[in-house]
Amino acid sequence: MKKLFISAAVAGLLASSAGIASAQQTLKLAFIDPLSGPFANIGEIFVNNLQYGVDEVNARGGVLKGVKFEMIKLDSKLSAQESQTALQNAIDQGARVILVGGSGSSVVNAVVQTAARHNERNPDKAVIVLNHSSIDPELTGKNCSFWHFQFEANTAMKMKALANYIKTQPSIKNVYLLNQDYAHGRQWAKYGQELVGLARPDIKFVGETLHPIGKVKDFSPYVAKMKAAGADAVITGNWGPDLNLLLRSASEASYNLRYFNHSAGSAPGTVPAVAQAKIGQVTWVGEWHPGEADVPKAEAQAKAFKQKTGSDFYAPRVVFTPLILAAAINKAQSLDSVKIARALEGLTYDSVVGPVRMRAEDHQLLLPQVVNTIAPVDGKAVKAGWEGTNYGFRTDAVYSGNELAQGSECKISRP
Asked: Does 22-152+297-366 match 156-286+368-404 in CATH topology?
């Protein structure tokens, strides 16, 4: 009788494990980012990179011996309200993982808060939010959530990398803070003044301006303001068209500024804007840049991505976000959202840019950051052009995720 009981139990467990794949052959992931409006090109980059990662997971056989990923694509319209509507739409379609980050921190915050409320009311339909690009430190700080994971280095980490580099640049003396008027822009200015000021107490901050996001077509009045203040450098969190239009206006005014930014080379149009301007140095920070030395896995992935999609490769972290999710699911041996979230906590992953770790206490991914400047091809520091120009990327400094890690106010409430 004892043998029969053990055999029946084992048979039940085997049937249950097999049922994971048979009951649900796909796990739905919902992409919620701008697919229309002035930042639609940014959304397209993210969706293409995420789809590439999803395809790679599926090509490896999916997760749990046969469960494939399926990505639903929804337009955030760069609006918190629209994103919350899209989130409910995604949940109604059966999505259990939400991919967001290219709509700005206010949108991501709204999605995370809405998801947390939904999960509390509907634990059997709980969703996890994977943030691939929003860099708001409060998302892993005082507004942290068990259901949210940040896959991009946050504002404080990026600014620390830039501050470390600016410390070595004595020619920078007068800095202006020009940023978009929303949470990210204000934070980029705040951390810029704090961390750069700490690294270089001799630097003068000669002015600060916030402007509407995605609405300014001519930045010449702002450029004139910076010039009148005597700025030789600007700390700007502008991205997409807002950065490219700023570069154009400065060029038209023959104003040779230095720019310090978080993602300039990881979006289309900025390198051509610099090449066309021929003046101004744009220095930015990311987990990788095309042509970066000693990162052969990322270069190989960039070539494979270009061959498959016909598009340039910008952001390794966006591609490996679904791959890390897959690793967590296989570690958890479950499609249960709580178990997947717990498996993500503390997870280490050997990515194409080197080992990365999801810090358990606040769900901040620790990944390397490369300070680099968009510069003319010289065959030495810059070996190849980008986006059809003779400008590429010069590596200035490289920092590990652990070197840039910051303290956190996060106090996660776990289910």
From this structure: yes
What is the three-class DSSP state of 116? Answer: helix
Domain ranges of the chain: 22-152+297-366, 156-286+368-404
Q: Which class would CATH give 156-286+368-404? A: alpha beta
CA distance 415 to 413: 7
Q: What is the CA radius of gyration of the chain?
A: 22
Residue 371 near residue 397 (C-beta atoms within 8 A): yes
Strand residue runs (E) in 243-280: 258-261
Q: Spell out the alpha helix ranges (H) of 1-136.
A: 2-23, 40-59, 80-92, 105-121
CA–CA distance from 241 to each of 247, 379, 395 (Å)?
10, 30, 24
Q: What one-character-per-residue DSSP string does 373-406 give?
A: EEEE--SSS--S-STTSSEEEEEEEEE-HHHH--
Cα 334 to the chain's mean position, in Å?
A: 26
What's the CATH class of domain 22-152+297-366?
alpha beta
Confirm if 39 and 240 have CB atoms less than 8 A apart.
Answer: yes
Q: What is the tens place of the pLDDT at every residue in 308-324?
A: 999 889 899 999 999 99
In 3D, which of 129, 151, 141, 136 has the Cα closest to residue 76?
129
This prediction has a pTM of 0.89
